[in-house]
Amino acid sequence: MKISEASRVSGVSARSLRHYEDEGLIVPGRFSNGFRDYCQSTIDRVLVIRSLLESGLPVRLIREVLPSLTDGSNAGTEVVCAEFLHEVQGYRDRLAARIAVLSDQQAALDAYLREARRTDL
After folding, report:
1. Which residue among 11, 42, 51, 112 sits deepest, i.e. has the most Cβ atoms within 10 Å of its Cβ?
2. What pLDDT was estimated at residue 86?
3. Where is the HTH merR-type domain (predicted)?
4. C-alpha dihedral over 68, 74, 79, 84, to 10 degrees?
5. Model-level pTM greater than 0.85?
6. Is residue 36 within a helix (H) or strand (E), and if so which, with residue range?
7. How far apart are CA 75 and CA 27, in angstroms?
8. How far is it, in rounded angstroms, from Cα 87 to Cα 61?
9. In terms of pLDDT, which residue wins out, 33 or 57?
10. Rounded CA gap, 52 and 67, in Å?
């Protein structure tokens, strides 16, 4: 499929698809006229990339971890460098901290709404 259809199907802008390619995260095929040709497996990979980016993982780390997440194998996972694991753990911990803050804020808003509704009656 062409980039416009790949963008529509994946929910990722054409600009982002080009960026993912520039960063070496995806390698779409090419039509004879040079236009990009996205297959379903590339779209699936784009969805994984998007999810990882939304979680706060930087492209540099995604590039390292992506092959083991999308090729269906565990090849190379036992040889992962300790420094890389430390970085990923740090991002995971920061994400957990953000979730905790958001949960606290949600609880405070819930309490406020309960109190406001009780005084309205």
Report:
1. 42
2. 84
3. 1-68
4. 40
5. no
6. strand 36-37
7. 20
8. 8
9. 33
10. 13
